[in-house]
UniProtKB/TrEMBL annotation:
It comes from the Eukaryota. InterPro entries: LHFPL. It comes from Seriola dumerili. This is LHFPL tetraspan subfamily member 4b. It is a multi-pass membrane protein. GO terms for biological process: sensory perception of sound. Pfam families: L_HMGIC_fpl.
Amino acid sequence: MSVSPALTDLSRLYQTEFVRSARAVGVLWAICTLCFAIIQVVVLVQPSWIGTTDTRHPGAPSGTLGLFEVCVESDWPVPDCRGGLSSLSPLPSFQSVAVLVGVSLWAVWTSVLCLCLFRFCSAATVYKICAWLQLTAGFCLALACLLFPDSWESPEMRALCGDSVGSFSPGNCSVHWAYILAILGVLDAAILATLAFVLANRQDALLPPDTKDGKGGEGKDLNDVSQFRCFSFCVQTWRNLCFTVTIHSS
């Protein structure tokens, strides 16, 4: 049964519009992934997870607290901060939280670097790799957000928020914008990972009709070549990384 030319032209027009829409959504997804990676850096380094409230007792210290440092307001315009990211040593009570946020940061920045694989691998493969990395980042960040209130019963929190501090009880303090941003990051990671899986599953629909499996397995051959190029690129990158580490260590 032959297909009318009008129907063929309509199908090609629909496919062209679908390709343009998918590319636009993919670019938006990549930009949001980069923004999420920047948010992760801000969440890790900012000492604004917990801060004192205006209802604290007279004479009590005023300041904020993060994973790596505690900042207390002083007579100077700049607060007096103890600790910092430069020492790569988080506060003792928040070491597990800092490790989880660090793993989440590594996963999301790895997904950003994987955007370069679009040149060597099939788009579906890259989207799936990034989706799993973003799920890992969201899972680790969610665990960090759950463990952080459980670690409030610490000397740093008692010195800043009073003796009424306990697990899931901030005492004279309240959560600040960095902790809220971390919670929003969990939602952001879930949305980006879901969108990446959807884009990966739609890639077959973006292929032209003569490259699908129905004609001599040509589409399967193209997919095998793309996967081989992706595997070769990953192996070569891993070899170069190991060689660089070996040279520096020796």
